[in-house]
User: Fold Transposase (putative) YhgA-like domain-containing protein from Parablautia intestinalis.
Amino acid sequence: MAQNTPKRKIKDSVFTNLFQDKKYLLRLYKALHPEDSNVTEEDIKDVTIKHILVDADYNDLGFSIGGRLVILVESQSIWTLNIIIRALMYLIQTYHDFFKRTKQNLYGSKKVNMPKPELYVIFTGEKPKNPPDIISLSKDFFDGEKIAVDAEVKVLYQEDEGNIIGQYIIFCKVYNEQRKKYGQTKKAVTETIRICKNRNVLKEYLESKEQEVVDIMMTLFDDEQVLEAYAEDIKNNEARKTAKRNAITMLEKGRISVEEILTFFPELTSDDVKEIEKEVMQLV
Assistant:
């Protein structure tokens, strides 16, 4: 039977969905380069890295302007300097794809043409004290030493209703507030959309794709719950492994009997007890 529902990308989000539309991507570029008033949607090419093994974007957003600029943008809600390394890895892969696409010979004597890189992170979480405007590999990982390859990432965190980047940050802050209020519920999502539309924040986008935005955010709730459950399973498995090792040690030292294992280690099961008893008998 044919599937009528589009296949959702694993890493789909409001951020990636918003900037899949070149109309909004152009606004993002003009927020970064207000001096460049001549660029049109036709000048923009999507170069977001696609993962080979899964149907998902490998990085959040990559686009080029003609042959002169390549811009990579990541959206991040948790502060980490590791974004510098990830951005550098994305940039190298983007250049690899660019040279392959343009059929330029990196082993020839002729100097290749390449677009100038710009790296950005849009930070939507709780700001650290005195957040930097620029983070770099040299400064933040090697105490400012001169290194063979450096990468500078500009940090964008200002809430601003006057441009689409600032509006996206506001949207995320409103969402965080509503999630604290209503939890992982549809109410948190619909209230976020209502408040942002009233404030003229991403209003055009939210009005045209409201149901899609709700679906995306509810799917992300589901994904988070799966990950939380997976993390809890790992935690429980580690706890059981530790309990089994301790039970074996106590049995070997004669401090408890097999019948007392579940009393001292309630996280274990009767099957675990059988395995422990068998293992101890083999050691005797």
Summary: Residues 233-283 form one domain. Residues 2 and 152 are 47 Å apart (CA to CA). The radius of gyration is 26 Å.
